[in-house]
């Protein structure tokens, strides 16, 4: 097999990569190498390191090398759905990054480089679907963050420095063993349980259960009777029986 060739992919050449550059409406150039079965970072793309956006998502990459620092113009980097168990320390040199997606990998809290805190212009950071057991407090340095994905990890707490980020608009922490989320799940489970109805005949109930059910039914009737009706509710007593009044004088109002 050729270098960099994955089981379901093919080796990326410079010519191939050049043909995969797309220009957005805003003039940004994106190198799209997603869904190609790439297993190793294709070093040939260093020739295209002046692109503003790089998409390596949905591949089989296990490592991003330190040479990623060559992509100094990057505003947007998508690495989601690979097999990354670490990020290079040089990622902190990509000072222009506003978007970083490393969702659905094998990252642990220890494998997140402290240099992430250097990405001062980052607005979107997706760390969901990884193996994080805590959130580094240093992420509180990312003062421009508006969108933070932390879903589907093993988090039991969110540090105050992260919760209090000044520009944060969306923080997805779903499906983590956070105490507040566990309480909500218990409430939902309780609602599900009380929605289950078992219908039985009165003769099959023991005296105490029958008395309790009758008491609850009487209480519901009492509450219904106490419900005030609007005083301005319109009343049409002559329409209780269809045409009861109209039958006598219908010749007067019928259009002739």
UniProtKB/TrEMBL annotation:
Biased composition (Polar residues): 226-247
GO cellular component terms attached to this protein's record: cytoplasm
Claim: Ribonucleoprotein is one of the keywords in the record: no
Region ranges (Disordered): 223-256
SMART domains, per the entry: LRR_TYP (SM00369)
Keywords assigned: Leucine-rich repeat, Repeat
Gene3D superfamilies assigned to the protein according to its UniProt record, in alphabetical order: Ribonuclease Inhibitor
InterPro entries referenced in this protein's UniProt entry, alphabetically: Leu-rich_rpt (IPR001611), Leu-rich_rpt_typical-subtyp (IPR003591), LRR_dom_sf (IPR032675), LRR_domain-containing (IPR050216)
Keyword Membrane belongs to the record: no
Pfam families in UniProt: LRR_1
PANTHER family registered for this protein in UniProt: LEUCINE-RICH REPEAT-CONTAINING PROTEIN 18-LIKE (PTHR48051:SF42), PTHR48051
Protein name listed in UniProt: LRC18 protein
